[in-house]
Predict the 3D structure of the following.
Amino acid sequence: MPKSILVVGASRGLGLGLVAEHLKRGCDVIATVRKPADEPALKVLPGTERLTIHHLDVTSDADIARLAADLPGPIDVVFINAGVSGPRSVTGASPDELNAVMQANVFGPIRLAHALSDKVREQTGVLALMSSIMGSIGENTSGGMEVYRATKTAQNSFARSLWLGSARSRGVTVLSIHPGWVKTDMGGAGADIDVQTSATGMADQLAAHAGSHAHRFIDYSGREIAW
Ligand code: NAP
């Protein structure tokens, strides 16, 4: 069981659920939101005496540098959850719209992961990135959401390079996690599972994979997903 976790993108949805679940489990939690107006949703959670809130937009290099400088280390789990769905098709979007989703889902999260990677505890620490089964090329049998899919595929690829480049030599485990299809603003009301089910499952997986020293693509129940 991790003693400390950083959750990036915790204003609502799965990020907020991960914060609530880890406070419930007795962890010290650091959460990031973009706007001060999003802090009240976190401050009403049970266990907030163990919660610290920082402000960060993953697409801002200045925010990334500030968080890296302010963050105490070592931390047991760094979980980069922030993400957007972006435009539906590559041909129906402008270059600016395509750049924006790449910055939010790929370059921002990965540059943040690099900036924080040496804060993750050696040997037992976990660096988790919120991926999606939509990023799996092997399990893409339906098409659709092609831009979002490609961002998560690219994020997975960068995560593998980060693991090989700096995390593995420190014994840090890297997880690319699919949370399930979850009822959030992004997943919609018709999704399969609720935030609590997903957050509980992901928290169990973070604990189970600590010390495994691998880079895995798994879902909230631990199922291995094809790259
Ligand atoms: P959500 O309810 O829309 O929440 C998205 C979160 O990401 C919010 O906290 C949002 O903050 C934050 N965020 C977006 N852009 C950001 C940025 N540039 N900097 C910092 N934070 C940013 O969606 P969700 O369903 O919880 O999704 C969370 C993650 O799970 C995403 O990476 C998503 O791709 C992934 N995922 C979700 C599902 C699903 O079924 N829901 C399935 C697979 C993967 P603001 O409130 O400030 O916008």
